[in-house]
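Can anyone check this?
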Amino acid sequence: MIKTVTLVPTLMTDDKQVYRNLVETFNTFTRRVQIDVTDDEFTPNRTLDITNVWWPNEWQADLHFMALYPSKYIDTIIRLHPSLCILHAEANEDLTPTFAKLKEAGIKTGLALLPQTYPGNVKQYLETIDHVLIFAGKLGQQGVGTDLMQMEKIPLIRELRPTVEIGWDGGANMSNIRALSHAGIDVINVGAAISKSNDPANAFRTLKAEIDKNGVVL
């Protein structure tokens, strides 16, 4: 049986009008989108503040929140009520209480791993969360390359949590998305290859077709 891989556009900007434009554009071809937000501490680049993000009610929104102390924003996150909230293993606090509050609110929990983070070192989180995001790009930036060696984390995560949803974030495009889709990943998040395309809808369809190819020839 061929594994189904979900293609998810990534939305990241520090401009309210650009954000609105991307929401309207993405809404014409998908219902699952990853929203990238920073707290002005975790990354060198700014995004729209978490209090200014929004999305259509029909979306399955994955909130990727890059924050040193995400617990400070828990009330805001719960009010936004994303389908999934992804926090970083490299945060400067124990994420267990925050994950518990999110679950109590009916929000799925995810853990993002920067390149330097070994899955075995965050086993206490992997035992309870719904999603693991392998981050292979540069924080707060889109379209700046990827570290495909991060695919080595996939079997390590599967050994710890065989059924957890695994996502990939960082530099996915037409040159590598087929390889990623055959590597055991469930979700491939794509930023610049869609959002910075002249025709985002066509870029999404083209990338999805590449993911759906079965083998070397077809």
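Reply from J.R.: I decoded it. Strands lie at 6-11, 32-38, 60-66, 84-88, 108-113, 131-135, 165-169, 187-190.
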